[in-house]
Amino acid sequence: MPENGQEKQSDFMIEKIKERPFNKKKLLRRTVITVSMAVIFGLVACLTFLVLEPVFSNWLYPEEEPPMVIFPEESDEVAPEDMLVEEEEPSLQETVESMILEDEQLHRLLEDLRLDKSHYEQLYNALASYKNELEASMVVVTGVSSDVDWLNNIYESEGRASGIIAATNGQEYLILTDSDTVNGAESVMVTFCDGTAVEAEMKQWDRQLGLAVVAVQMASLPESTQTAVRVATLGSSNMRDAVGIPVIALGAPMGSVGSAGYGMITAAGSTMSTVDANYKLLTTDIYGSPQAEGVLFNMQSQVIGVIVPGGAGPDRENAVTAVGISELRKLIENLSNGKEAAYLGISGVDVTLEANREMGVPFGAYVREVAMDSPAMLAGIQRGDVITELDGNSIENFTNYTTILQRLEAGQTVTVVVQRLSQNSYREMSMEITLEAVK
Q1: Do residues 415 and 371 share a domain?
Q2: Which residue among 195, 370, 417, 436 is least packed, with the fewest CB closer than 10 Å?
């Protein structure tokens, strides 16, 4: 208690609160830093997402590789006369009577037959209708590239070629076409029979024959187009008595895409030799362009050959000529699967029966030439050698050699067994050779 009972009045300190000075520069600096950090964080997050998203997507939802394209092995063709049931031989009298009857029937038929222009019109209308059916397997392939003229102006150039839908793996249409049009192009467009045009990508190409396979995603095509198109059926070029068989040339047999020609096979005995392969040629009486390309169809809607320019030789450069499809089956299969062809580097022929009997040359692939700096040359294979074994497979002829080589991979090391003439007798030699990609 305060003295004398008097309250002592307390003194209070009166303070005045002042606002902190507003520093605009500091606030602006912090704002800029905050916004910058937010932008940097956003960019890092976006980049991280872009980089990792495909990884996580492939991990969670792995994309299935398209199935491999495998063409069925071509079976030995049976000639029509081999399909007949053997019957008892008729007597001479029965044979003569049958011939007389057939001759009388033929005379009556010719007497009643009178051809006029309407018959030819019907014939060519029937061929045109058949051609239109086959067109469902044909496409137009356009390769687009950029170039610079002499004034440094950039312009686009287009190359066009015909193509055929050779196969499908369930996800893609695989189209065989000319490699010069698509190789090196910045973009490739494929136009189908109904006019639908979509982008395609290169699968693989062959340097020796100038063929390539491009792929079109089936999902990129409308359902109507998938219904309209048809995958071509590969037939056989190993038929007996091929000369005289009627054929239709489609693609660009006259040098322009979309042209066609009708005729027949006039020769089937010549071959086209390339490194590691020989191809049977089918020559027709169709007068076309020296730069013809496309395919040959028979009357059963089957592809029996791929047209190559100038295949008939300089004396008949306008005769449309095709490489037999039987020899191309494995090549087209490899191109469709993106497989690079294995390269050994020899040119050769079959060993004939006469050479085997008279000179003792063993059966196999006779080496006629060895390509410069090829795996075969580097391994020591020489002209005149006979290859009798490749990668553990017996070689009976050059066609057999090509078939086995097409099954192998570039970069694969294989054992090659050759027979070499030494002092009037053949001596076996074994070599380890690493195959390369076709140069």
Answers
A1: yes
A2: 195
pLDDT tens, residue order, the chain (439 aa): 454 444 445 554 555 555 555 556 666 677 767 767 777 777 777 766 666 666 555 655 555 677 777 777 665 444 444 433 444 556 655 665 566 666 667 676 666 667 778 878 888 899 999 999 999 999 999 998 876 666 666 656 788 999 999 999 999 999 999 999 998 889 999 999 999 999 999 999 998 899 999 999 999 999 999 999 999 999 999 888 889 999 999 999 999 999 999 999 999 988 899 999 999 999 999 999 999 999 999 999 999 999 988 776 777 788 999 999 998 999 999 999 999 889 999 999 999 999 999 999 999 999 999 999 999 999 999 999 999 999 999 999 999 999 999 999 999 999 999 999 988 899 999 999 999 988 6
From CA 74, how far away is CA 164, in angstroms rounded?
Answer: 20
Query: Structural domain of residue 219, as residue ranges?
Result: 138-146+156-228
Q: Is there a domain that residue 177 lies in?
A: yes
**b/e string for 10-47 if b means 16 or more Cβ within 10 A?**
eeeeeeeeeeeeeeeeeeeeeeeeeeeeeeeeeeeeee
Same structural domain, 348 and 320: no
Rg (CA), the chain: 37
Residues composing the chain:
439
CA–CA distances in Å: residue 262 to residues 32, 230, 289, 301: 78, 21, 14, 14
Of 271, 287, 276, 373, which is closest to residue 326 (Cα–Cα)?
A: 271
CA dist 120 and 177 (Å) reads 34
pTM of the entire structure?
A: 0.76
Number of domains, the chain: 3
Strand (E) or helix (H) holding 28:
helix 24-60
**Three-state secondary-structure class, residue 204:** strand
CA–CA gap between residue 97 and residue 93 (Å, rounded): 6
Cα distance between residue 125 and residue 12, in whole Å: 121
398-406 and 325-336 helices, crossing angle to 10°: 20
- C-alpha pair distances (Å), 161 with each of 86, 121, 251: 50, 30, 8
Please, which residues bridge with residue 188 across strands?
Answer: 143, 200
Residues 352 and 321 in one domain: no
